[in-house]
Amino acid sequence: MPGRRVPATLSLQAYDRVRNKILVGEYALGEPLSRRRVAEELGMSLIPVSEALQRLESEGLVESKPRAGTRVKIPTVEDIRGHYIVREALETQSARLFVTLATREQKAELRNTAALVDRLSLAVARVDEAHKAAAGFEFERAHLHLHTRIAECGNCAALVDAIERSRVLIYNWLFNVTADLEALPATWHRDLVKALTSGDPLEADAAMRRHVTFRQALVIERFTALQHAGHFAKFQRGPRRRPSPAGRIKTH
Fold it and tell me: Which burial class, exposed, middle or buried, applies to 248 when counting CB atoms under 10 A from its CB (0-12, 13-18, 19+)?
């Protein structure tokens, strides 16, 4: 019946699946997102897909323009630089709070998580191309969890909320995937946690600042090169039709 809302779980499922497709690069930056096509691919009706795309637009991952439809948003250099600045401010504060407030058990947990993230990072570098997207997804999900836990262990709900609302960790994921960056140093996250568990807030602050800004210049350079090469140009002309799911050869 008109106006009937679908169960929240369907909208959330659509949101999660579309967001994940964006984050792993299956929906490329600038790619048109026809509600009907996305609904067909997800096996859902238009209503949950429309609600999912509206939420993603409010979070800045997609955008809608008159006569151009909805597409995955292409961040500008100013967008990228701004997200790095915000992330640096939020996460260095998280680091200082973690040093003074985290329990012994939480510090041990973080060491284990950092070791896992480093192993997954190494796995991404070693896996073949056919499995790289899946390996990258596992790494980025664990990486997001690590940084979220640092904030949570600081016992400041407002800071955790600010990090979640800013979406800085999600954008970090998106930038890394799109820029196709090389592997991180082998002990990159364990070194960070070592500084966070040192007991020195200034050391923790400095380590987090290095960690967050490590590849900022390279990401901006890669995005700029892609734009100059016209990588996104084919997505500037509005929506295009794509083959139906049945007519495409899927790679895994």
Answer: exposed
Q: For 131-178, write each residue's pLDDT tens digit.
A: 998 999 999 999 999 999 999 999 999 999 999 999 999 999 999 888
Residues 6+ apart with CB under 8 A from 77: 220, 223, 224
DSSP structural state of residue 32: B
Cβ-Cβ contacts under 8 Å for 32 (sequence gap 6 or more): 69, 70, 71, 235, 238, 239, 240
What domains sit in the chain, N to C, each tagged with a CATH number? 8-74+232-247 (1.10.10.10), 77-226 (1.20.120.530)
SS3 148: helix
State whether residue 242 is helix, strand or coil: coil
Instruction: Report residue 176 as tokens.
Output: 């890394």
Query: Is residue 2 helix, strand or coil?
Result: coil
Q: What is the pTM of this model?
A: 0.84
Question: Which one, of 236, 193, 223, 230, lies nearest residue 211 by Cα?
Answer: 193
The distance in angstroms from the start CA to the end CA of the chain is 39
Residue recorded with tokens 């262990």:
153
DSSP string, 70-90: EEE----HHHHHHHHHHHHHH
Distance CA 231, CA 224 (A): 10
Predicted confidence at residue 236, as pLDDT, reads 56
To which H or E segment does residue 69 belong? strand 69-72
In whole angstroms, what is the distance from residue 173 CA to residue 242 CA?
Answer: 26
Structure tokens at 52: 């999912």
